[in-house]
């Protein structure tokens, strides 16, 4: 089997378009996207999701596009890499998922600005479109207009798309306002072990929702009578649990008090959005939220999604691991301060700019320049905590950072059952990592990274850690089946290439000729 690269597929698309006598604008209109996106696709600089590949093949009547891109998407990384330059942090994937679900609350026109075009966003958009929501991409292709129908058609839900994202759970909060009973497919997402939905169900039960697990689906039933004032203590300070409770509270008149709430970045974005809808939300960023709901929400609103602290940490890690000097702009500092404190203890040098506001007018941003440094292992184990502690999704990056440091480090991931196991895959690239148990890694550095063929871990952040380590490795690494990375990052290989990385996207076998 011969391989195809993003560049060769882009040339195929360009040739098919010109053969039909179409402009890039015409093809963009057929695809429901913008001309700049078509230009990036044709030059191999745009991530191609499965749904986009199918739309291209249909629009150009070229099944050859689907044939060329059959199988998994892979990355070929040549190292070692030295990066330079500046790069902007893009908006939060996790906030976008919550806001897309929350748009179901609004019977007016919602415009979300700056949405990352990633696989997970595509999946939720496919679900929304299938139940009757009108979606229109605008501007440079990252602004989305959302207009929901008066009555959602849940019977038409795209179950395949729904099963591929855990975010479908956040439909529970909005939909309990719409239907006396409904069904949702079981949620998917990363392989991080047993992630119980019980905290969601315990919280939403206080709003009259009961859920029974049937074969392949959650069957939800909503009680006729619900208390006017609700005081809820979450049994887990989870992000999506808090978001579900917020969306449930927003659509019910009266006061809801949520205790043990998450104050994390995506929860704050949802709170700011609900305020735009006319919902009173007090205590944003704290563990106690007070919400005054409205029975019928109908507002024409625009909201700029804030920058993603996890992507910021990914990009900073790219500079640290490759011993490069790069500037990462638009970092949301409130959600990175503990991470920076740990890096400082390890000897990492960086320069932080004065603060300035995000486009949402709320989130505080800084530009951060990382400088090549001699790192030493931290004195204590590195472990996550709920906000304002070290973010659970930033913990994996410290595994690859500690592997570059001199000394012995312990990474303790007490939240997830499998993620430490996935991170141990860094040993394939030369790291001295011992899996102490399902939650703890012992890492002894520094590492002399070496390239090799490797299957991508089935979890987003460990997968990106392997990619970053491969950039520092001597030789060629073929990272196979990177769908999980595309779930959470928009065009990450191309953006890293703009800093000096050498990453190619290909379909097929690693030993094939391009």
Detailed description of the structure:
The chain is an alpha+beta fold and 514 residues long. The chain has three domains: 69 residues, lambda repressor-like DNA-binding domains (434 Repressor (Amino-terminal Domain)); 217 residues, UDP-n-acetylglucosamine1-carboxyvinyl-transferase, Chain, CATH 3.65.10.10; 212 residues, Enolpyruvate transferase domain (UDP-n-acetylglucosamine1-carboxyvinyl-transferase, Chain), CATH 3.65.10.10. It is 33% helix and 24% strand. The chain is built from 19 helices and 24 strands. Strands 1-24-2-23-22 form a five-stranded mixed beta sheet. Helix 11 runs parallel beside helix 12. The chain starts with a strand and ends in a 7-residue tail after the last strand.
Quick rundown:
The protein has 514 residues and is of the alpha+beta class. The chain contains 19 helices and 24 strands.
List the helices and strands and how they pair.
Blueprint: E1 4-5, H1 6-19, H2 24-31, H3 35-42, H4 50-60, H5 63-68, E2 73-79, E3 84-88, H6 93-102, E4 109-113, H7 119-130, E5 134-138, E6 143-147, H8 159-163, H9 172-175, E7 181-185, H10 198-204, E8 209-214, E9 217-222, E10 229-233, H11 239-250, E11 254-259, H12 265-276, E12 280-282, E13 288-293, E14 301-304, H13 309-321, E15 325-332, H14 337-345, E16 349-352, E17 356-357, E18 364-371, H15 395-404, E19 407-412, H16 419-423, E20 432-437, E21 440-445, E22 453-455, H17 460-472, E23 475-480, H18 483-488, H19 492-497, E24 503-507
Parallel strand pairs: 3-15, 4-14, 10-11, 22-23
Antiparallel strand pairs: 1-24, 2-23, 2-24, 4-6, 5-6, 7-9, 8-9, 11-13, 12-13, 15-18, 16-18, 17-18, 19-21, 20-21
Helix pairs in contact: 2-3, 6-7, 6-12, 10-11, 11-12, 13-15, 13-17, 15-17
């Amino acid at each position: 089997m011969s391989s195809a690269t993003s560049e060769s597929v882009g040339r195929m698309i360009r040739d098919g378009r010109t053969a039909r006598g179409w402009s890039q604008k015409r093809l963009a209109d057929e695809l429901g996207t913008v001309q700049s996106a078509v230009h990036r696709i044709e030059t191999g600089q745009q991530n191609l999701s499965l749904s986009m590949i199918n739309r291209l093949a249909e629009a150009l009547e070229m099944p050859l596009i689907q044939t060329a891109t059959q199988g998994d998407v892979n990355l070929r990384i040549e190292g070692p890499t030295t990066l330079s330059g500046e790069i902007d942090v893009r908006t939060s994937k996790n906030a976008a998922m919550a806001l897309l679900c929350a748009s179901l609350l609004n019977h007016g026109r919602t415009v979300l600005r700056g949405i990352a075009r990633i696989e997970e966003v595509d999946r939720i958009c496919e679900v929304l479109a299938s139940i009757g929501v009108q979606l229109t991409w605008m501007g440079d292709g990252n602004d989305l207009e959302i207009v929901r129908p008066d009555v959602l058609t849940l019977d038409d839900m795209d179950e395949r798309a729904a099963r591929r994202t855990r975010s479908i759970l956040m439909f529970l909060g909005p939909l309990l306002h719409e239907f006396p009973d409904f069904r949702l497919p079981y949620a998917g997402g990363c392989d991080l072990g047993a992630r119980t939905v019980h905290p969601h169900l315990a919280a939403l039960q206080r709003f009259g929702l009961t859920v029974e697990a049937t074969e392949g689906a959650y069957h939800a039933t909503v009680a006729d009578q619900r208390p006017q004032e609700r005081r809820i203590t979450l049994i887990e300070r989870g992000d999506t649990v808090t978001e579900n409770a917020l969306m449930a509270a927003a659509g019910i008149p009266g006061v809801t008090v949520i205790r043990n709430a998450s104050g994390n970045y995506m929860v704050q974005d949802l709170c700011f959005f609900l305020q735009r809808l006319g919902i009173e939300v007090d205590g944003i960023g704290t563990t106690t939220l007070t919400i005054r709901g409205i029975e019928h929400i109908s507002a024409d609103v625009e909201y700029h999604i804030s920058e993603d602290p996890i992507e910021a940490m990914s990009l900073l890690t790219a500079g640290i691991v490759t011993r490069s000097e790069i500037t990462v702009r638009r970092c949301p500092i409130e959600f990175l301060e503990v991470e920076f404190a740990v890096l400082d203890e390890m000897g990492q040098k960086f320069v932080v700019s004065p603060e300035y506001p995000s486009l949402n007018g709320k989130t505080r941003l800084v530009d951060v320049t990382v400088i090549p440094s001699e790192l030493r292992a931290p004195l204590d184990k590195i472990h996550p905590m709920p906000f304002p502690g070290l973010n659970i999704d930033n913990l994996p990056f410290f595994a690859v950072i500690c592997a570059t440091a001199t000394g012995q480090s312990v990474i303790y991931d007490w939240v997830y059952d499998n993620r430490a196991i996935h991170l141990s895959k860094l040993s394939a690239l030369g790291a001295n990592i011992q899996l102490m148990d399902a939650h703890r890694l012992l890492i002894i550095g520094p590492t002399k990274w070496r390239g090799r063929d490797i299957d991508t871990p089935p979890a987003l952040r460990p997968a990106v850690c392997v990619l970053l380590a491969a950039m520092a490795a001597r030789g060629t690494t073929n990272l196979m089946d990177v769908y999980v990375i595309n779930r959470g990052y928009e065009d990450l290989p191309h953006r890293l290439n703009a800093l000096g990385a050498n990453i190619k996207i290909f379909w097929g076998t690693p030993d094939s000729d391009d």
